Amino acid sequence: MSREYCSNLIQLSAEYYLNSNSKIGLRSGFVEISKDKFIAVGFEKTKVAKDWEGTDYFNIIILTKADDQQYYIGKIEHPADIFSPKYVNDDMRINWVEEAIQVTDNELMNDLYCLIDSRSEYTLTIHDKPYSIYEKYLCHSISVSYEIWENHDKSKIEVSPFLIVRCQLSSKYFAEALDYLPMKILEYPINIYSLFQTSVFQYRPFKIWHGNLTVDGIKVTLESK
Fold first, then answer.
1. Degrees to nearest 5, angle at CA 116 with 52 and 141
2. Rounded to the nearest 5 degrees, what angle is found at the Cα of 82, between the Cα atoms of 196 and 39?
3. pLDDT-derived band of residue 104, with 50, 70 and 90 as boundaries?
4. Which residue, of 69, 121, 124, 208, is most buried by count of CB atoms within 10 Å of its CB?
5. What share of the chain is helix, strand, coil (3-state, %, to 5)?
6. pLDDT tens for each residue of 40-91
7. CA–CA dist 48, 158 (Å, integer)
8. Cα–Cα distance between 191 and 123 in angstroms, integer?
9. What is the pTM of this model?
10. Comparing C-alpha atoms, which of 106, 112, 90 is closest to residue 167?
11. Edge-to-edge strand order for the sheet containing 107-116?
12. What angle do CA 124, 128, 134 make, to 5 degrees?
């Protein structure tokens, strides 16, 4: 990895991502997932847009544990537009929010930028009202957070399998293009598993993490030796 350090990994509930068939793929062969089924994810920006017409790229960092008690790390690079509102199903909870994008305790990544110039059109239904969005020179400034699900056992903290994305819409050409929208910030969930690119543990090579690792509840800290 270009930067073997990430301070904001979050431990996930393994039941949503790991099962008896899960294996950790290596460049040659596989290793078995540990019986305690540990998995954590984090994000890091890998490429910054060179100008306003560009798109940022980021890695989803995946950390898991094998039967040999070693921790293994892998990464998958995505363009920022994978968090675009067009990838959200209309029946999910999409909301307009008034406040600006701000850093929160649950934030995993912010200041992620992309320009959408696909000339595509799609409809989002928000509070039973359809909004038609035409993506021509429409810029997105994105932040990504995790959410905690309520549990009957208050001593157990569970991270939701959905990320909370806040997407600020703006246009570099025609300001009036967004005037019909009640607000210009959308909040919606994205399934974490969708970033894994299907069977990540069988088709994506991992390597042993040789650095320091600290687990504090759901927070996981990695630091190079």
1. 65
2. 25
3. confident
4. 124
5. 10, 50, 40
6. 999 999 999 998 889 999 999 999 999 999 999 999 999 999 999 988 876 6
7. 32
8. 20
9. 0.87
10. 112
11. 95-96, 185-191, 158-171, 138-149, 107-116
12. 20
Helices and strands per DSSP (H, E), number in the chain: 1, 16
Alpha helices by DSSP H, the chain: 200-203
Q: Would you give the distance in Å from CA 203 to the centre of its chain?
A: 20
Tokens 């068939």 appear where? 21
| Tokens 């073997």, residue located | 4
pLDDT at position 2 is 43
pLDDT digits (tens, 9 = 90+) for 15-34: 888 887 888 888 888 888 99
Which pLDDT value is given to residue 174? 62
CA dist., res. 212 & res. 73, Å (int): 13
Q: Is the pLDDT of residue 166 over 90?
A: yes
